[in-house]
Design goal:
With about 220 residues, the chain is an alpha/beta fold. The protein has nine helices and eight strands.
């Protein structure tokens, strides 16, 4: 059995970054963790059309993983989450949903660092559907595309600038990196801003591990 992490874009470097971010979690996972790149996906999920376009390929990819103990959708728009949950009998975690729920245990008001301004309306709709808009400090863009996130110096500079603005101008006391492609920057952003930073992929994999742990508990036995 395996926890499968599905990157819905076709950029292998993003998948490699996700794999590196979750690598330490393998030591505590009860099953192996594997990361996958969706070959049919766009280089980055940056529009509603991209989101809708990867749902069917994700369903096919998931259907081809019969050893799955849990599935993680590794895109901050959580594409296909409801459809995958409908089709699968194992836990399916979205990284955006997991990140927000985790952030609310670390602080009162969370700030999101998005890749581009066009992402923000989608995030706001999702947060509204989750019923957590009142806990959002702000969602601000760093103004970079998914592929551009490979430029470490520029990305960390922009993350630090925007993270500081979220803290100082909007009162955020916890930050969420709003793209799976930002996974490698979590610790450095935390050090630069002095705030706890939630990496969505780590949050979702942690929840997947937790779901497996809960499933392993026999409710017939006394605690």
């Amino acid at each position: 059995m395996t926890i499968h992490v599905l990157n819905p874009n076709s950029t292998a470097a993003v998948t490699e970054g996700i794999d590196a971010a979750i690598a330490p979690m393998r030591a505590v996972a009860p099953v192996p963790i594997r990361c996958h790149t969706l070959a049919e996906g766009p280089p980055g999920i940056e529009s509603q059309a991209h989101i809708e376009g990867v749902v069917q390929p994700l369903l096919r990819q998931a259907a081809g993983l019969p050893d799955a103990s849990a599935l993680v959708v590794a895109c901050f728009s959580d594409p296909g989450l409801a459809a995958l949950r409908e089709a699968q009998r194992v836990p399916v975690l979205g990284i955006a949903e997991s990140a927000v729920l985790t952030a609310m245990t670390l602080g009162h008001r969370f700030g999101i660092l998005s890749i581009g301004r066009a992402s923000i309306p989608r995030h706001l709709r999702y947060l509204g559907a989750m019923g957590v808009t009142d806990r959002l400090a702000a969602d601000l863009p760093i103004g970079m595309g998914v592929v551009e996130l490979a430029d470490e110096d520029r990305t960390l500079t922009r993350l630090t600038e925007v993270g500081t603005t979220l803290r100082e101008a909007h009162g955020a006391d916890v930050l969420i990196t709003g793209c799976a492609g930002m996974a490698q920057y979590r610790a450095r952003l935390e050090a630069a801003t002095g705030l706890p930073v939630v990496d969505p992929c780590q949050a979702a994999v942690a929840m997947a591990i937790g779901r497996l742990a809960l499933a392993a508990c026999d409710p017939r036995e006394d605690p």
